[in-house]
Amino acid sequence: MPPSVRTLSGRARRQVLRPPRFLARAARSSGPEREAVIQAAKAAAAAALAWLLARWVLQAPQPFLAPYAAVFMVVQVTVYRSVRDAGQQLAVVTAGVVLALAATLLTSQVVVGLALVVLVGLLIGRLRTFGEHGQWVAVTALILVGEAEPAASSPLHAVVRLAEIAVGAGVGVVVNMLVLPPVYQRDAREALTGAVARQADLLRGMAASLREDGEPREDLAHEWLHRARALADEARRARDSVAWARESLRLNPLRRRDRTPDPTATLGPAADALVEVAGHVLDLAEATVEAAEQQDAARADAAEEGREADDEGCLDPMFVGSFADLLDHLASALEEVRDDPGAMSPQADRHPPGSGALELMGAVHREAARRLPGASGEVRTGWSVEGALLSAAQRAVTDLTGRRPGR
Predict the structure, then answer these.
(1) What is the pLDDT of residues 31-60, one digit of tens each?
(2) Which of residues 240 and 201 earns the better pLDDT score?
(3) 94 within 8 A of 162, measured Cβ to Cβ
(4) Can you tell me the mean pLDDT for 293-297?
């Protein structure tokens, strides 16, 4: 059924109102919207300045490569990346200019020249020297050959184009460095603490359900698995945000002026630990799903055979209670990291998060060892799942404390 007129009008209204709302959020408070507006304004100013400077210094009638390079430098998310990419961009455009010069010298047919520079440029652009910008070798050469001017085949013309790109890149780097250089520490801290808090909430929910039901429920176990996968991805994104924050301080004059601390010492270790713990929580969720499916299958088999279900394939109730306590301790450790990410720093002079989980982990290990099969050779299906749960929990405790639990 096609959407109604009312639905279509509502969609159109939302699309029309989206830009004004974006600008309103940018004006109201600092955040991604304001940062985007600032970067756009800096790019516009850099493009205009690069054009005027190239016209004045180089006397070039149409110095379009100068504003192109300036914008390319400004839109980079960090000052360090602007400086790094300036060198790569100069290499890219140099290769494109030389390729265009060679093509126009080899053939007078524009169509043949276009095909030649695209073919060779895309192949040359795969070289590691050009990084992720290699495709612009072909694009730059394509633009220059497409000019179809007699001067396009002149070596002097090629030198002027190279000078244009150098002027534009220099203007872009200077503007990005001196005019409100971007710093992403607040974004990184918010991303990290949010991801840690949601990871702790998942563990709290798992512990409460296991303690209340005395066993994992299959419907909830699948929901935990879905959330654990999403949180593992979120943890990796939070670590990327911390990496951006660290990079945003490199070559940034704002850091020296404001004495902004390096987030590596406080956020970096916490972000790395979060990624590892999120992976172990995902293993926990997968093992919980396995346990729930095993116990449901055992009960279904018993019902089909007309007998009462036994405990084969189920987790031991004592283990479930202890394991729920362990999950709560892990959640508490994560909440310590949420409140103070610096607690994970190697230079921290306080106890590492997870000390309570470390002690309880040792007790759970000892209890599990007493319940292992003895000389009788009796084996219960639930032992393998308990082992998987304990192994994942132990790795999480180790990553939070830096120490292995005592067996």
Answers:
(1) 566 677 777 888 898 889 999 998 888 887
(2) 201
(3) yes
(4) 73
pTM for the full predicted model: 0.67
Q: What's at 81, amino acid-wise?
A: R
Give the Cα separation of 71 and 141 in Å (integer).
19
Decide which of 373 and 125 is more confident. 125
Residues whose CB is less than 8 angstroms from the CB of residue 308 and which lie 6 or more positions away in sequence, other chains included: 302
The torsion region of residue 372 among left (phi > 0), alpha (psi -120 to 50) and beta comes to beta
Count other Cβ atoms within 10 Å, centred on residue 46: 27
In degrees and rounded to multiples of 5, residue 108 shows phi and psi of -95, -5
Q: Which of 181, 299, 200, 301 has its CA nearest to residue 245?
A: 181
Q: Which residue has the tokens 């999480």?
A: 396
Cβ(337)–Cβ(274) below 8 Å: yes
What does the alpha-carbon distance between residue 188 and residue 182 come to, in Å, rounded to a whole number? 13
- Measure the CA–CA gap between 295 and 312, rounded to whole angstroms: 8
Q: Is residue 293 a contact partner of residue 218, using CB atoms and an 8 Å limit?
A: yes
pLDDT digits (tens, 9 = 90+) for 299-356: 666 566 665 555 555 667 777 888 888 888 888 888 888 888 777 766 655 556 766 6
Structure tokens at 250: 């490199």
Length of the chain, please? 407
Q: Which parts of 179-267 fold into alpha helices (H)?
A: 185-213, 218-248, 253-258
Q: How far is CA 72 from CA 55, 68, 69, 84, 226, in A?
A: 19, 6, 5, 12, 39
